[in-house]
Automatic annotation (TrEMBL):
One of the record's GO cellular component terms: microtubule
Record bears the keyword Nucleus: yes
Keyword Cell division applies: yes
UniProt family annotation: Belongs to the DASH complex DAD4 family.
Protein name, UniProt field: DASH complex subunit DAD4
Major location (coarse): nucleus
Alphabetically ordered keywords of this record: Cell cycle, Cell division, Centromere, Chromosome, Coiled coil, Cytoplasm, Cytoskeleton, Kinetochore, Microtubule, Mitosis, Nucleus
Sections of the chain in a coiled coil: 17-51
Location in or out of the cell: Chromosome, Centromere, Kinetochore; Cytoplasm, Cytoskeleton, Spindle; Nucleus
Signal peptide, first to last residue: none
Gene Ontology BP terms: attachment of spindle microtubules to kinetochore; cell division
Length: 77
């Protein structure tokens, strides 16, 4: 029986796959750190977001009230 034919590119393919796997692992770690950083930033900005939403509400109320004020309105109406 003849010996099995070896793939001349097998070693190179194995090395390339190992490099790809290592780089994907590094990318995964970097993305996890990025996600943690974004979550931390979002937590720190939460109070600012709440104040901005309150300010917008006050602004809408003031605009509404100013539009509905009529200085020429009779008190008999």
């Amino acid at each position: 029986m003849a010996p099995p034919i070896e793939n001349p590119y097998e070693e190179r393919q194995t090395l390339l796959l190992e490099r790809i796997i290592k780089n994907v692992d590094l990318l995964d770690e970097a993305l996890q750190e990025l996600n943690r950083s974004v979550a931390e930033i979002n937590n720190q900005n939460q109070e600012t977001t709440i104040v901005a939403e309150m300010w917008n509400g006050y602004h809408r109320n003031v605009e509404f009230n100013l539009k509905n004020m009529n200085p020429n309105r009779d008190s008999t109406e």
